[in-house]
Design brief:
heterodimer; A: alpha/beta; 10 helices; B: alpha/beta; 5-stranded parallel sheet; about 20% strand; globular
Chain lengths: ~300, ~120
């Protein structure tokens, strides 16, 4: 697995060094910058999976300094951002989670430095969650969370004994959607195959007609034109063939995801065999934690890392 | 339409004031928490959760968003904290406003809420 590439921007060099070492130890490739001017070329030139931006990047003593948020707004919207601050406030939280031009929030996470580097790591890991998209969608829906970062908090509120039902619901909904999409993809592949065959035979027919025109009428122009049209038709058939290949690849990918989902259902079946509901819930939480921890070589957080609830 | 979740027949000067502020944008209706599902049906209705009356605003937002994915949920608080604001947004709220906002700013905020895209739902 490749290392995720993250950028950390903070004008506090001691913190920047400590954060860089921490994330490198967790398996991340880290770039750093200590000001918006240093960060901008990195955003433009380097491939990044995520950026961690301190909010006060110019003057830590100026409560109006939101240069980190401004940098977030100006930088590549495809790079998810986690905002970091020594001076958390509801105003900056509002600004961090407000929608930007692409409809999504400006930031995917907001962490106070006082919460510690492990809370920051958790936010980053959840933002880079590599779960298969269909499974992730259904997992979040079944547990009533709108984003991976909110899922952990939701797990604490689920009624006792309800975890297994929700996880099973997740697998059933995922399997149902994957099967439906695979059938659609197979159907699309068949249609493209048929269309490609029709075009190919049409092309061959046109080439034969061209030959007949050349032989029996001696008309070179007519023959050549028909030959060119026939050749172009066969070239069009190649396009159909490529699209059909891509459709088959997508169907295979969906089949792989469906197989993985089936494998995970076995875990649910095992969970349902646990007699004590408290032990069962605990087991399910560990499963979800393990799923959430599967990130590009990054290690899961220690058992003591936890955000405090408000 | 704006719906304010409330308990019992709780009413207050602040709610009346909020109704007047929102009047140019829509009608404000008080709705019991357990009646919310029956009354809030239209897409893009705004549901206002007063953090004072709800034991766990984050859970309330999450539950509302799951059951009414097209509604715009706003949390308002007399004592806003950054942690509650973060929890509200992560649970799916579209905005988090202090009750102490002046009327003009409040009206502007709700006007923007009506225009904002809904927070992203799982893909």
């Amino acid at each position: 697995m490749t290392q995720p590439r993250i950028l950390i921007v903070d004008n506090n060099k001691d913190y920047l060094d400590a954060a860089q070492k921490f994330f490198e130890a967790q398996g991340y490739f880290v770039l750093n910058a200590s000001s918006p001017d240093e960060a901008r070329p990195i955003f433009q030139q380097e491939p990044l999976d995520l950026a961690i931006l301190d909010i006060r990047l110019i003057d830590n003593d100026d409560e109006k300094d939101t240069s980190g948020l401004e940098l977030a707004k100006q930088s590549n919207p495809a790079v998810p951002k986690v905002m970091l601050t020594d001076y958390p406030s509801f105003q900056t939280v509002r600004e961090a989670f407000s929608p930007v031009h692409n409809g999504g929030p400006l930031a995917v996470g907001y962490i106070a430095k006082a919460e510690g580097l492990e809370a920051l790591l958790e936010s980053v890991r959840l933002a880079l969650l590599p779960l298969p998209p269909v499974f992730e969608k259904h997992l979040l829906r079944a547990f009533g969370a709108t984003a991976p970062v909110a899922l952990r908090n939701r797990l604490r509120e689920i009624e006792p004994g309800d975890m297994t039902r929700r996880l099973r619901q997740t697998y059933e909904d995922t399997a149902s959607e994957l099967r439906g999409r695979r059938e659609q993809e197979n159907h699309r592949g068949s249609q493209l195959h048929t269309a490609g065959l029709v075009v190919r035979y049409l092309g061959i027919l046109l080439i034969l007609v061209a030959c007949c025109v050349l032989i029996f009428t001696g008309s070179i122009t007519g023959g050549v034109v028909t030959l060119i049209v026939g050749a172009l038709t066969n070239a069009v058939e190649l396009l159909f063939s490529r699209r059909e290949d891509k459709s088959h690849q997508r169907a295979e990918y969906l089949y792989t995801e469906l197989e993985e989902n089936t494998h995970l259902v076995e875990i649910v079946v095992l969970a349902e065999m646990i007699e004590s509901s408290a032990d069962r819930d605990d087991y399910i939480k560990k499963i979800i934690d393990k799923l959430l921890s599967q990130s590009y070589g990054a290690k899961p957080p220690s058992p003591n890392s936890r955000r405090t609830k408000s | 339409m704006f719906f304010m979740l409330t308990k019992g027949t709780m009413d207050s000067n602040w709610m009346k004031q909020l109704g007047q502020v929102l009047a140019p944008l829509g009608t404000l209706k008080l709705v019991e928490v357990n009646e919310a599902m029956k009354q809030i049906k239209a897409k893009n209705d705004v549901v206002i959760v007063d953090a004072t009356f709800v034991e766990n605003a984050e859970a309330a937002v999450s539950s509302l968003r799951t059951q009414m994915p097209d509604s715009r949920i706003v949390v308002m608080s007399a004592a806003p904290t950054w942690k509650l604001a973060r929890a509200a947004f992560e649970a799916g709220a579209i905005d988090y406003l202090p009750k102490t906002m002046n009327e003009d700013d409040l009206q502007d905020a709700f006007r923007q809420i009506l225009e904002k895209p809904l927070p992203p739902w799982p893909r």
